[in-house]
Write a structure and sequence with these properties.
Elements (H helix, E strand, L loop, with lengths): L14 E4 L8 H4 E5 L3 E10 L2 E12 L2 E6 L5 H21 L11 E8 L5 E15 L15 E7 L2 E4 L1
Antiparallel strand pairs: 1-6, 2-5, 3-4, 5-8, 6-7, 7-8, 7-9
């Protein structure tokens, strides 16, 4: 008789976030929290005999991906994100100007790698054509009793994600 093995459950610390390593070398080790987005499917409502019948729709909607990023003391990761947002804004401005074309790269694939309990890659999410939509507040305080790392919340939009 075959014995069923009990599964190893996903650990909350078993992940790393990777973007284009040439542009965002600090990201891989500085993501402290990632909120994987929800997926919704639209519904179609059809009136039927005094009630509304609901059917699956034809549109999938992805919510935004959010991450808390640890800030290094040189603030390099913050600077990378800030520069990315400025490039995104500049590309949008250039796109509305009919005389100037933009070759600025502002969308990157972001990969969240899921790790096993032995830190081996087991699965991943790839958020395609992602770009930051919000670089949150940074809270400095001198009244904390113990030293805690400072984080900044970042929100990303993307076209879709793949799960491999």
């Amino acid at each position: 008789m075959a014995t069923l093995l009990s599964p190893n459950f996903l650990q909350p610390t078993g992940f790393k976030l990777v973007i284009d390593r040439a542009q965002f070398g600090n990201f891989e080790f500085f993501a402290s929290n990632i909120t994987h987005p929800s997926i919704d499917i639209s519904e179609t409502v059809q009136a039927f005999r005094g009630t509304d019948a609901k059917f699956p729709g034809d549109k999938i909607m992805y919510s935004q991906m959010q991450a808390d990023i640890l800030i290094d003391e040189d603030m390099k990761v913050y600077e990378e994100l800030h520069s990315w947002m400025l490039r995104t804004q500049q590309k949008a401005i250039n796109a509305t100007d009919t005389l100037v074309g933009s070759t600025l790269k502002t969308e990157y694939d972001i990969q969240m790698i899921i790790l096993t309990s032995h830190s081996n890659q087991v699965r991943s999410f790839k958020y395609k054509d992602a770009f930051p939509t919000s670089l949150g507040t940074v809270n400095f305080t001198s009244t904390t009793g113990s030293i805690q790392a400072i984080t900044v919340p970042v929100t990303f939009s993307y076209t879709q994600f793949d799960f491999t």
